[in-house]
Design a protein that fits this description.
Elements (H helix, E strand, L loop, with lengths): L4 E9 L8 E9 L5 H11 L19 E4 L2 E4 L11 E5 L6 E3 L2 E2 L2 H7 L31 H5 L12 H12 L6 H8 L13 H5 L6 H28 L2
Parallel strand pairs: 1-5
Antiparallel strand pairs: 1-2, 3-4, 3-5, 6-7
Helix pairs in contact: 4-5, 4-7
The chain binds iron/sulfur cluster and FE2/S2 (inorganic) cluster (FES).
Length: about 240
């Protein structure tokens, strides 16, 4: 059986009201299957019960444990420490207010998803009318990793962002009663599909295979196709005697 080894976690610490963030260091024993979340929960149990970290499902399904490890957006529950070096830096997602240590306020992601209606779950999949507001975009687990990794979102708070644009593309593929025109109007905007700089960081980090960058390219093609008849109509009017 392989021995565990010691890794030093360098963990971002901040509470609203603190003068400045700091990094605390915690030695943790790491085996071949130890995840970042395992190690953080061990720190909380054995070294510092005040460490704030969020999780629920423990299997890459709920999207609540997103954070950055050595500068890269990951789900802590499925990211193993093995192979990440003797010192591992753990920080909250970027571009969102820190609610405490490794937990950020996800309101910015939800605010971006709202204008595209946060599709979609088949009506047959709804548990009941009382849960209707909980429906969400298939595949996307709303973890926010893409938004944290996106260099455009880092500089433009109004940018709709990768998850919402991917959701819009999915909705336009299969509207299921949604207001298609309103969604098209929202994404055909300087802060919508045209704002993306093709960094592809979002697709790199997405743990759910959504491929937001690919979806944004698809959206642009769709927008151009939708514009062509309008442009042709204007041209015909212009040349009419
Ligand atoms: S598109 Fe991918 S990375 Fe972005 S919120 Fe959804 S699951 Fe997470
Ligand atoms: S705890 Fe649910 S995705 Fe990690």
């Amino acid at each position: 059986m392989r021995q565990s080894r010691a890794v030093r976690l360098k963990v971002f610490r901040y509470r609203p009201g603190d003068q400045a963030p700091r990094y605390d260091q915690f030695p943790v024993p790491v085996g071949p299957r130890t995840t970042v979340l395992d190690a953080l929960l061990a720190v909380r149990r054995q070294q510092d019960p005040s460490l704030t970290v969020r999780h629920s499902c423990l299997h890459a399904s709920c999207g609540t444990c997103g954070l950055r490890v050595n500068g890269r957006e990951v789900l802590a529950c499925v990211t193993r420490l093995e192979g990440l070096g003797d010192e591992v830096v753990v920080e909250p997602l970027a571009g969102a207010p820190v609610a405490g240590d490794l937990v950020v306020d996800m309101e910015g992601l939800y605010r971006r998803l709202e204008p595209v209606g946060r599709p979609l779950v088949r009506s047959s999949e709804r548990a009941g009318p009382e849960l209707e507001e909980l429906v969400r975009f298939e595949d996307c687990i709303e973890c926010g990793l893409c938004l944290s990794a996106c260099p455009v979102a880092a500089t433009d708070a109004g940018y709709l962002g990768p998850a919402a644009l991917a959701a819009a593309g999915r909705l336009l593929d299969e509207p299921r009663g949604a207001d298609r025109k309103a969604v098209l109007g929202r994404v055909d905007d300087d802060h919508g599909a045209w704002r993306c700089h093709l960094a592809f960081e979002c697709s790199e980090v997405c743990p759910a295979g959504v491929d937001p960058a690919g979806a944004i390219m698809g959206l642009r093609r769709r927008l151009l196709r939708e514009r062509l008849p309008r442009l042709a109509g204007r041209r015909d009017q212009a040349v009419r005697p």
